[in-house]
Structure formats: structure tokens, C-alpha cells
Amino acid sequence: MYIKLTDGVAKRYTLRQLHKDNPNTSFPKEPTDTLLSGWDIYPYTQSDMPDCDEATQACDYLGLAETDGVYSENYVVRAKTQTELDAY
Closest Cα partner for 74 from 55, 40, 53, 46? Predict the structure, then answer.
């Protein structure tokens, strides 16, 4: 799976979408990451949410983040606020 950067915003993207968006361009059956980066398309790895104690912690999604040229979900575990604790 891949992401595409548009105006600095990363969104999930597929090779099928690349072909649909560029019908008059031919691409190799298995394009390289280098070729795709020329189209602002980068590898994406789905990551698991981190473990957290639901009674006292919250796991917030921070969006996609890049590490060594590969994008994945970015989460942060934090202590729940008093309001969140009261609602639990």
C-alpha cells in the first residue's frame, strides 16, 4: 500500500488509483519506490495501535508520519483527563 502527498498532506493511495489518475501514462507492472517518489507516492505500512490501559489512558491518532521513507500511522498514549475519567 502507498500514500500520496498532496500539498504536504499524506493520504492513502493505490497503484490502481495512479493508473486511473494518469490514463495516458504507462507504468511498469511493479514500479520501484524511486519511480513512485517522482509522483509524490511513497510506501505505507499499516501499524497497530499501541497498548494502553483503557481505564486510565487514551490513545490519540496523530495522522500519518514518515520514518526512513516509509509512512505509517502515528499514535500517542496519554493519561486521560479528569473529564474522560469521569465519563468512563
Answer: 46
Decide: 17 and 40 in contact? Cβ < 8 Å.
Answer: no
| Residue entry with cell 521513507 | 69
Look-up of cell digits 507516492: 41
pTM: 0.70
Tens digits of residue pLDDT in 40-82: 999 988 888 899 999 999 999 998 888 887 889 999 999 999 9
Q: What CA dihedral angle connects 59, 61, 64 and 65, to 10 degrees?
A: -40
Three-state secondary-structure class, residue 35:
helix
pLDDT digits (tens, 9 = 90+) for 6-37: 998 889 999 999 999 999 999 998 999 999 99
For residue 23, what are the CA distances in angstroms to 13, 16, 39, 49, 74? 16, 11, 14, 37, 33
